[in-house]
Amino acid sequence: MHDASAWSQDTGQDDPGAAPEVDLTKPSIARVYDFVLGGKQHFEADRRAANGFINALPEAPQIAKDNRNFLRRGVRYLVAEAGIRQIVDIGSGLPTEGNVHEIAHAIDPSVRVVYVDIDPVVLAHGRALLGDNDTTAVITADLRDPESIFGDPAARRLIDPTQPFAILTAGILHHLSDDEDPYGVADALKQRLPVGGHLLVTNFLDDDEPRAQRLERGFIDGGLGTGRFRTWAEQRRFFGGLEMVEPGLVYANDWRPDELTPTGSPVHTLYAGGIGHRAV
Ligand SMILES: C[S@@+](CC[C@H](N)C(=O)[O-])C[C@H]1O[C@@H](n2cnc3c(N)ncnc32)[C@H](O)[C@@H]1O
Questions:
Q1: 175 in ligand 1 pocket by Cβ < 6 Å?
Q2: 55 C-beta neighbours (distance < 10 Å), count
Q3: Per-residue pLDDT at 14
Q4: pTM of whole model > 0.70?
């Protein structure tokens, strides 16, 4: 039995010794996200960057909560309904409440999960998990370089690429600028999926133009330096070549809502999500 608290442990305070290779003077997306979710793994630079976009739109932190809620429902669908038993969670972020392996293992403890993040702070905080759960691994790798993910020994050990698996990209593709070819990055990931493989995507949405544009500036100029709000047409490109799982690409809280899904979210129109699968 795995120890969920190892992944979701609270290391507690501003502890610069936790990950010596990390530059604490610059904001990290993972730590800023942890701050807006109410976690404790953040430093002054992260809080300043978060306030840069919270000043632009005070209700912005609800986007993170809506996203986590989508992720919970999406993983439950993948495991309970689509029969997925292997998951690669790219841009997994810091441990928080309701981690992907906890959601999956509540349905089937044999599901294998590889957490991937570019930020070594995620590995530092996830490392405790490695010793006591042989179905779960945490690796440091880059979304833009799929081989750094799928060629990693831990990923090769846990993921059989010939069998259906799911790639999760929740709240990460919007951190790629247009110059970084986000659609080409998504295509390279989709090429790894066998028939029956699934891709989960959630992103900032530009369907509510004044607020989306104000918040985008708050992210990009407010200190974090990244956070692109893309239109529905742009979002659809991430799923090109895949069949959409019902109800398709929608406002995140409209995707198979359940009794825990936030209702009346003030940022309902600023976030989109969907799941596609490779049918042929
Ligand atoms: C907003 S968090 C999302 C966390 C989690 N997926 C969720 O939806 O709750 C985005 C994460 O993506 C990571 N990230 C950003 N760029 C990345 C890249 N090029 N490769 C891998 N991870 C990246 C960040 O370090 C951060 O932890």
A1: yes
A2: 11
A3: 44
A4: yes
| The pair of three-digit structure tokens given for residue 55, joined into one six-digit string | 């000043």
Q: Give the torsion sign (CA, 34, 77, 111, 152).
A: negative
Mean pLDDT of the 102-114 span: 96
Q: Is 143 in the pocket of ligand 1 (CB under 6 A)?
A: yes
Cα separation, 260 vs 206, in Å, equals 25
Cα–Cα distance, 257 to 44 (Å, whole number): 36
What does the alpha-carbon distance between residue 91 and residue 112 come to, in Å, rounded to a whole number? Answer: 17
User: CA end-to-end span of the chain, whole Å?
Assistant: 36
Cα 192 to Cα 215: distance, rounded to the nearest angstrom: 33
Higher-confidence residue of 168 and 10: namely 168
- Higher model confidence: residue 242 or residue 124? 242
Chain-centroid distance of CA 14 in Å reads 24
In sequence order, the β-bridge partners of residue 2 are: none
CATH dotted code for 61-206+230-277: 3.40.50.150
Q: Is-contact 277 201, C-beta < 8 A?
A: no
Q: What distance in Å separates the CA atoms of residue 76 and residue 69, rounded to the nearest whole number?
A: 11
Give residue 29 CA to ligand 1 midpoint distance, Å.
7
Nearest Cα neighbor of 172 from 29, 3, 69 is 29
Position 102 confidence tier, pLDDT thresholds 50, 70, 90 = very high
- Over the Cα atoms of the chain, what is R_g? 17
d(CA 116, CA 165): 15
Per the structure block, which two tokens stand in for 210? 């004044």
CA distance 172 to 174: 5
Tell whether ligand 1 has an atom less than 6 A from the beta carbon of residue 117: yes
